[in-house]
Specification:
With 174 residues, the protein is an alpha+beta fold. It contains four helices and nine strands. The longest helix is centred in the N-terminal third of the chain and has 20 residues. The protein is globular. The protein starts with a helix and ends with a helix. 27% of the residues are buried.
C-alpha cells in the first residue's frame, strides 16, 4: 500500500486546522476517524473555557491545488453533487476549510444552499480571503456570520443556540 504525497498533505491540513481551533481559538477539535464519509472533523464551540455543546462539521481540503482558481476576493472550490447532497443533509452545519501548506493559512466558508452555485459538473463554493482562521486570535469580529443567523432561525436555538456574543467572542475573522 502506498502513502502518497497527497495523503501526507491531507494529514498536515487536518493537523494544522486542529491546531488553529484547539490552541488559538480554544475550541474542542474532534477528528473523524472514518474520513471517507464526507467530513474530517467536528469542532465544539467553547466560551470562556466552557464547552457549549454547539457543534460544527469540518471538511478540510489541503494543498496548493485548492488555491489555483482564485479571484481578487478569494478562491473557488469545486465539488461533485454527491458530496454536496451529503453536506446539505447533515444535521450539523458544514464548514469547508481550505488549508494552504505554503503559508500555513486556512480559510473557511459555510456550505449551504445560499453559498453554493450549482454547475453542469457539480457545484462551486466561493471561499472569501477575509474568512481566515487566525493563528493568533487577535482583532474583533466584524460581522456576525449570516449562516449562524440562518441556523438560529431555522432551528429556533434548540440544537445550536448561536448568539451574536458567542461567535463574536470566540472566533475572530479579519
Amino acid at each position: 500500500m502506498r502513502f502518497e504525497k497527497s495523503d501526507a498533505v491531507g494529514d498536515e491540513g487536518v493537523a494544522a486546522v486542529n491546531m488553529l481551533f484547539s490552541r488559538e481559538l480554544r475550541w474542542i477539535f474532534r477528528e473523524v476517524s472514518k474520513r471517507d464519509v464526507g467530513v474530517d472533523a467536528q469542532v465544539e464551540v467553547c466560551r470562556e473555557r466552557l464547552a457549549t455543546s454547539r457543534l460544527l462539521a469540518l471538511q478540510i481540503k489541503a494543498g496548493e491545488s485548492y488555491f489555483t482558481e482564485s479571484t481578487a476576493d478569494g478562491w473557488i472550490y469545486r465539488g461533485n453533487r454527491d458530496h454536496l447532497d451529503y453536506y446539505l443533509a447533515r444535521s450539523l452545519p458544514v464548514l469547508m476549510v481550505l488549508y494552504d501548506p505554503r503559508s500555513g493559512g486556512a480559510w473557511w466558508q459555510h456550505v449551504s444552499k445560499e453559498t453554493i452555485r450549482r454547475t453542469d459538473k457539480g457545484w462551486a463554493l466561493f471561499v472569501p480571503r477575509d474568512q481566515r482562521l487566525r493563528e493568533q486570535a487577535k482583532g474583533t469580529c466584524k460581522t456576525f456570520p449570516s449562516w449562524a443567523r440562518e441556523f438560529r432561525s431555522n432551528l429556533r436555538c434548540v440544537a445550536f443556540g448561536y448568539t451574536r456574543g458567542l461567535l463574536c467572542n470566540s472566533l475572530y475573522f479579519t
